[in-house]
Amino acid sequence: MAELKAKKRKNTHRNFMLWTVVLGLVFGMLELGMPLEQLGQTSRDKILQKEVSGDIVLVGIDDQAVREVGVWPWPRSQQAKLLSSIDRQGADRIFVDVHYAGPTTPVEDQALVDTLAKIDDVVIGSFSSPNEGEDWNEIIWPQRMFSDVAEVGSLTAQYDYRSQPKSLPYAVEFDGKRMEGFSTLMAEFEGPIGKTYQIDYSLNPYSIPYVSAADLMAGRNVDMLAGKTVVVGADSEQIGDRYMLPGYKRMGGVYAQILGAETLKIGPRLELGWIAPFVVAVAALLLALRRRNQWIRPLLLLTATGGVIIAAPIATEIFRIGLDIVPALFVLALGLARILWMRWKQRGLVNELTGLPNLVALRRDKSGQNLPMIAARIHNYAEIASTLDADGESRLVEQIAGRLGVGRRENGTLYQGDEGIFIWFADKQVAIGNHLEALHALFRSAVTADAKNFDVDISFGVEVGSGRSLSNRLGSALVAADEAHDEGIKWKYFDPSRHEDATWRLSLLSELDKAIDNGEVTLAYQPKLDLKANKIIGAEALARWTHPEKGPISPTEFIGAAETHDRIGKLTDYVLDQAIAAAARFCNANSNFSVAVNLSARILTDRSLPRRIFAKLQAHGVAPEQLVLELTETAALEGTGADLDLLAELRQMGVKISIDDYGTGLSTLEYLKKVPASELKIDQSFVRGMRDNRSDLIMVQSTIALAHSLNRKVVAEGVEDRESLDQLKSMACDIAQGFIVGRPMGEHELLRRLRQEKRTKVA
Fold first, then answer.
1. What 8-state DSSP symbol labels residue 488?
2. 3 state SS for 639-659
3. Which residues make beta-bridge pairs with 377?
4. DSSP three-state, residue 325
5. 550-567 core/surface letters (b: 16 or more CB in 10 A; e: else)
6. Is 676 exposed, middle or buried (0-12, 13-18, 19+ CB in 10 A)?
7. What is the crossing angle of helices 555-564 and 502-517, to 10°?
């Protein structure tokens, strides 16, 4: 029973895979990665660098020869003298990389012809350029007088985009006849006409035995030519015919011919091209994309594959096999980019264990604002999960999500919270009752994880779409799910009647404005106990309003109404002013006393708030450190960058920030680091349940450890008995708040308690 969401993700992955393969093939066939390919080849050549055989000796017409003999080109009688000297030294064969395309004087030309005729094995060069096909079109041929007495070899080379010699032909065809390449004649190697081979630049050109032509022209005896193949060529900037050899400096073109011959001596590389590495990269990407709910393992898989592909040519070239790898790396780079992009998009928005979007993502989904919201709660989820490892819990959630996906609207997203909470939006035309009855029936059969069968205790709650914030709707749907479970039924609608009395709500706001103006809204203070020092060190200010006709109005009701209709600013300013004024009086009885005030998430958009708070603190002579602003965890999670900037400004001022109701908002460590809080307040539901519920105890312990690791204090609210207080002390909790410490009380009552505590300590 695959989810529609999973199908959509699968289609997206398939499309990405298809386009990646197509782009990779185009990238490879058009050789768009050739610059990188050649850079990699140069790096590998340096790693695998080796010496030449030493069988070929270069006689260089270098700067020394130009100085001693004269400016090049020398008279051909002088060149004949050089060749005769090489022959007398016992050279086996002589190759002359010199242009003889045109005549000079008859005497000079005849002197060279006579010398060439006397030498048994001498090769001179011709030059040709390639056509668009594989044939070679001869364009420069030696004078007939020279080609009649010496063998001719092709000095043609192919160059890369940097004009560096890249490859040489085995042989070319001219006028229907085969002409061997200069390098193939040197190496005595026979290859196909019109085909080329790549020069192996791992052969070190500096290891080629070298003799300056100046020494031979001066008649000096050189004991390194006997029995060798000798190549005569230009090696001077003054003469020209110099090229950048890949990985080396500018050198004479004759070096490329000698390195080509040395390449053929050890055997040319078998060039397999880019297809094999490309197929490996595509296979790795396919495996990575199949891991739908993970990102670290696919990232490692693609990175490791890239490392293997980069290293593979080094290993294969030892066996004379060449590979092109840039198209494969292009495919892997696209895969890595997609994984990192998806990770960046989903940061803080997915459950790290299962990959399902979390409740933070739900709060950002405005598409379901007016659709019915359905909440499913697995009441024994914590009990089941405690018996499984991470992979087992992931498989458990996959099965639950699969069943919940049956009949859900197309493209409907399933959101996952902690402790077995799952949320989605339903279409308005769906018969919700029948749908939930069918879903509940699916859970009559056990789910299986790690070869264990588990009976799932599930109930559903529905919030029909009241236009309230998604956070409030979520709470309502969960309340309905819990009520359904408590009443022993499968599902239940949330009763919205408490929110539908529009007349009272509107009149309530006007009445609240008058109550604030007349000072009828009062503050109660619930003390906070420092567990280590065993003394009252602060109190939370709680707004109270008694209506002349309706009596006490629930804070949830009038504060909620003020938030909904953007009237919370006036109430907040009033409470802050009263609380800071009281703090000044409390500090006379206890200098380290602080007062906490709850801050609505809506007020965080007011950029003038820090300025107003600072003015109130100065007016009443209260240090900023003695004011604590409490922000619910849900509000912290919904905050934007601007909200966090405002909190940071308050924190920099010295005001303390507290994250209230911690544990109910499903925040991540990343969010906790971003919110500049000085303390966490553990929600009272966990504190009250920690003595009887192991998961609540673990929640309290882990929160204390987490807060202390972030250098933040921990306040436990809802502490109602001595046993819980002692247990919190043993867990190193910093501060306790609850009925065992003190119920909410008026300012004068709290002052009496502080003075009494002070007298007791003095006594």
1. T
2. CCHHHHHHHHHHHHHCCEEEE
3. 421, 459
4. coil
5. eeebeeebbbbbbbbeeb
6. middle
7. 100
Residue 52 token pair: 């030449």
In contact, 635 and 600? CB cutoff 8 Å: yes
Summarize the confidence of residues 461-477 as an average pLDDT.
80
Over residues 434-453, the pLDDT tens digits come to 888 888 888 888 888 878 88
pLDDT band for position 488 (cuts 50, 70, 90) = confident
Closest CA to 693 of 251, 386, 275, 446: 386
Q: 60 - beta bridge partners?
A: 212, 233
Distances (CA, A) of 6 to 258, 296, 324, 412: 61, 19, 36, 11
H or E segment and range at residue 587? helix 568-589
**Whole-number CA gyration radius for the chain:** 43
CB of 104 closer than 8 Å to CB of 113: no
d(CA 327, CA 331): 6
Who contacts 479 (Cβ-Cβ below 8 Å, separation ≥6)?
461, 494
CA–CA–CA angle 431, 433, 439 (5° rounding): 100
- Give CA–CA dist 456/366, Å, rounded: 31
- DSSP of 145-197, one letter per residue? HHHTTSEEEE---EE-TTS-EEEEESEEEETTEEEEBHHHHHHT----BT-EE
pLDDT tens digits, 102-146? 889 999 999 999 999 999 899 999 876 544 444 445 567 888 899
pLDDT 10s digits, 36-85: 888 888 899 999 999 999 999 999 999 999 999 999 899 999 999 999 99
Residue type, 424: W
- Please say whether the beta carbons of 192 and 177 come within 8 A: no
4-13, 107-116, 167-176, 731-740: least confident range = 4-13
Query: Using DSSP, how many helices (H) and how many strands (E) does the chain show?
Result: 28, 32
- The token duo for 474 is 């979520």
Contacts of 380 (CB under 8 A, 6+ apart): 420, 455, 456, 457
Question: Who contacts 320 (Cβ-Cβ below 8 Å, separation ≥6)?
Answer: 266, 267, 268, 269, 270
DSSP letter at 534 equals: T
Q: Is the peptide bond before 73 cis (omega within 30 degrees of 0)?
A: yes
Confidence of residue 740 (pLDDT cuts 50, 70, 90): very high
The pLDDT of residue 640 is above 60: no
For 428, residues 6+ apart whose C-beta sits below 8 A from its C-beta are 371, 372, 465
What is the rounded distance in angstroms from the CA atom of residue 255 to the CA atom of residue 248? Answer: 11
Angstrom distance (rounded) from CA 576 to CA 161: 73
Q: How far is Cα 567 from Cα 546, in angstroms, rounded to an integer?
A: 19
Structure tokens at 549: 């006709």
Cβ contact 415:423 at 8 Å:
yes
Residue range 536-561, pLDDT digits in tens: 999 999 999 887 777 778 888 788 77
Question: Tell me, what DSSP letter sits at residue 731?
Answer: T
- Burial readout 423-451 (b: 16 or more C-beta within 10 A, e: otherwise): bbbbeeebebeebbeebbebbeeebebee
Of residues 528 and 565, more confidently modeled: 528
- Residues forming a β-bridge with 717: 737
Torsion of CA 675, 676, 677, 678, to 10 degrees: 160
Distance CA 341, CA 345 (A): 6
Q: Which two tokens stand for residue 719?
A: 């502490």
Report CA 409 to chain centroid distance, whole Å. Answer: 32
Question: Which DSSP symbol is given to 376?
Answer: E
Return the H-helix or E-strand segment holding 286.
Answer: helix 275-290
Phi, psi of 153 (to 5 degrees): -125, 150
Structure tokens at 402: 């699969």
Task: Tell me the backbone φ, ψ of residue 649, rounded to 5 degrees.
Answer: -65, -40
Q: Is 749 helix (H, G, I), strand (E, B) or coil?
A: helix
